[in-house]
Amino acid sequence: MTQTHGEAGAKPEPRRTNPVVFTRQVVAELGKVRWPTRWELITYTIVVMVFVLIMIGYVTGVDWVFGQGVLWLYDPERAGVLETILP
């Protein structure tokens, strides 16, 4: 007997597990995780904090430059000067 295309590739539907089995599986998987040592955790924390401070400085600097550019662009005194220069 030949199989049709739909029957040959059919996979059984995955069954849902109950919450107790799921929790046991999660705890078992967490047991396999390689947790960082205290020294690694401190090092990673310092690296992240330094990176965040650098990004804060960068965003603050870019914001200040754009703010100064907008103030310069819309300065009323500069607008009066441009009117005298441009006919």
Can you walk through the features of this model?
The protein has 87 residues and is an all-alpha fold. The protein has one domain (16-85). 74% of the residues lie in helices and 0% in strands. The chain contains four helices and no strands. The chain has helices at 5-8, 19-32, 38-73, 76-85.
Could you tell me how far the N terminus lies from the C terminus, measured between alpha carbons in angstroms?
Answer: 93 Å
Give the number of DSSP strands: 0
Count of discrete domains: 1
CA radius of gyration: 32 Å
Mean pLDDT: 84
Summarize the structure.
The protein is an all-alpha fold and 87 residues long. 74% of the residues lie in helices and 0% in strands. Belongs to the SecE/SEC61-gamma family.
Sequence-ordered SSE layout with sheet pairings:
Blueprint: H1 5-8, H2 19-32, H3 38-73, H4 76-85
Offer a few descriptive terms:
4 helices, single chain, 87 residues, mainly alpha, elongated
